[in-house]
What does this fold into?
Amino acid sequence: MTATQTLIDVAESYLRETVVPQANEIDRNPEALRRVLHGLGDRSLLALRSDHPAQFRRFQEIISRYSGALAFLQTQHQSAAALFSKSPNNDLRNEYLPHMATGDRLVGVGFSQLRRRGTPPMRAKPIAGGYQLDGFVPWVTGWNFFEEFAIGAMLSDGRSVFGIMPLVNSQQDRGGSIEFSSPMAMSALTSTNTVTAEVRNWHLSEDRVLFVKPPHWMETNSQTNVLHHSFFALGCARAGLDIVERTAQTKSLPCIRSAWTKLDRELTECRDRIFDAELESIKSYDDRLKLRAWAIDLAGRCTYAAVSVSSGAANASTHPAQRVYREALVYAVTGQTSDVMAATLDRLVRE
It folds into this structure.
């Protein structure tokens, strides 16, 4: 057994034994979420995306099966670790990266706004010693979990600047400020404390810059990594089928077992094709989009099946079927581009 396989086994054991029994509480309670996040850090599992990228997808699928809130929160930090690992800023990389697997340094991300078309919500302009940042960050997950976050802002020539900012209301001596909203009331993953941020005249010094990316980098990166968010959906779909399978053991209805068998077969096929596409890197962009849409569709149908077999009990906000169904809604739009939206809609209206 390889060291990487051992990490995945450690992760699944921890998730099954510690996270599963309190998954509903973790979804609602930030303190419960904080405890299990630190548990991942205690097992050096918080930088797999940079340390073991090939196995990170499997980890992402597993954790999404057992707790959507924990999956969503930790992936913000994992994304930040991946940024640090690729940064040409050696001092910044050496300051943070060795401490990120254990969670001794916790960092979030706030650059989804770079996907938006039209006037950039977050703007940067060169000034002496770095950049001045102004604008609005519509989505930063991890308020009161992470100490800092990686921000993305657009320059006037279309390039994008990535740097590190505090994830706490702050004022600079020269007049810059960052102010965060209260955590949003979300349909799912509420405990992850997702906020917005207003940035005014913030001086991002050169030593806090991760890198400057060329024009259209975010669009190109989203296309290259179009399958990455599929692993959330795959894990969520499996969580739905776990509920269906357990219910089949208590309700002696052939229709439940039949539905599980058919959905399990389809999910296995979808999963195999997505992992093959990631490993071989030979699928066309259109093919990858279709696979992403298939995973999103399956998460919706498998969790809807969980709701159906749970009957009226699934109306309770604390029921596991209700939780995973709401998680599927989140994953349908996580990391969404217009291409992903089009592929999702095309699959939903297919004849």
About this structure: Strands lie at 107-110, 122-127, 130-141, 148-154, 160-166, 170-171, 177-180, 194-205, 209-213. The CA atoms of residues 110 and 151 lie 5 Å apart. The longest helix spans residues 254-280. The radius of gyration is 21 Å.
